Sequence to fold (587 residues):
Amino acid sequence: MIKLDLAIARGDFHLEINASLESGISAIFGPSGSGKSTTLACIAGLMQPDSGSIALDGESLFDSNENLHVSPENRSVGLVFQDGALFPHLDVQGNIEFGAKFGGANSRKVYPDELMKLLGIHDLAERDIAGLSGGERQRVALARSLAAGPRVLLLDEPVASLDARLRTTVLGYLKEIHRELGIPMIYVSHNVSEIVHLAEQVIVLDHGTVVANGPPRAVLLGQGIGQLANFEDVESYLSGTLVDRGSGDRSARVKVGNYEFVTPSAEHIDSDEVIVTIRASDVIVATELPRAISARNVISAPCVDLTQSEERSFATFDVGEPLVVELTSSAIAELELSIGVSAHLVFKTTSLTLTPRGILRS
Amino acid sequence: MSSEGEVILLSLRVAALAMVGLVPISLGIAWLLVRRNPRGRWLIEALVSMPLALPPVVIGFGLLWLFSPTGPLGEVIDSLFGGDLVFTWFAASLASAIVALPLVVRTFVIALEAVDPRLELASRSLGAGPWRTFAYVTIPIAARGLLAGVLIGFVRALSEFGATIVVAGNIPGQTQTLPLAIFTRIQTGDDSVAIRLVVISVVLALVSLLLHNRLVSRLASGRSR
Fold:
């Protein structure tokens, strides 16, 4: 657990945070310039707050009253930069071994070889950094940080610079790494969907102050943060397994939880494990089973969460994993939708996108 | 050994020693300027550039005054080493080093500026302290630029004349470097030897400059990648 109580001012910019981040995956959300990256830099020790304290698992990393500032190399806090910040003079393996070489002796240390296998970059070991794609870079950066055996992993918008397809793949990796290695993560992003998908807790920053703190769905889809998250398309990322790849214009079938989704053909995907991406606004909710309809996916699932604000309303359905649906408040009222009630969800084949799931196995 | 061979070896030795002392100092100054952006930056930059603006003879005179047996540093050196610095090949190295300083520092500054500071931060957060970060991240990434600085400094040290002749004299076999030897041969009318030495000078300079330019152009293309 990380306890933050810090204040920092640089020119016109003021940041004041007083919050604790539980173990597991927590997130810091906010528009650019809200102080997200500064907060991470303070936790990593790359920036020194003007006053306050930072403690990790009860150990003080910074305390202005005691004049304590543990230098970054002695914190065992891993920081993954947005573009990876890989060392250009080393190859992939060299980068990862750098972390292993200098990282603290820690029980969480994972061997570089194992990490490369885990992240599916074993084949890249001797490749030059310059020749890597964005997604590969992110995975190498992740492996490098993990090799150092951090007590907590800080991720500064790790997928913001990637295209939509790679983004879901890297998100998949992150989730599995957390499950596999149990390393607490702090994930910084200005993307609602990513945080709802990954995190158990979110802190919302605006102009350097905490404006909300709590479970992501309630905080980001519900009330309290107004226009900060207002103009975004919310997506759900569901883990699935291919049952039938399809071909050409023949649809594929993917098993998600106990459901089978009809999706565009998966010819181009070489793994059987996939992530199904679906936009919240692409799902239609019906209380009676629609018949004679062109949409290929009609499933029935229970509503597990409703969040309504003045601007937007969302219902979350349990399809084995949470599927977020955006609808108007008048629709919610008319359908008499409430938590615990099952409804039919209707969506088209083409509103689903498949990406290979970065599955962690050798 | 022919006297030309002796002159060349001495010149290389003088220039090499100059660089051995100059490189760490220049690296320190360049790092300070680039990474610390100190408050007196303008003053440091002006002082470092002085040898470029001053006639080398003035630098030689300054060194002579500093290190002469009765000078402020001369007595210290005498009590430490029991000898004199002036009119030794060591003094020639010192003179060359000071004259080469601005070129080396400037090239080092450019080389270090090309290193993304976030890479150093990444290294720190991976557990490498500031010195290790400097040795394993900063220097290897800046290596080409740093090497270019060393070469240009070496060339400048090899061709140093004005300061050297004042503080180190022109003693054959001891402080008579290539430029001084050429000067002496011209004065004594020994034209054929002078021309041989001139050709050697031109070749040494050309090879070093070609190497330097190659490194610099690679540095430029490496950065735009």
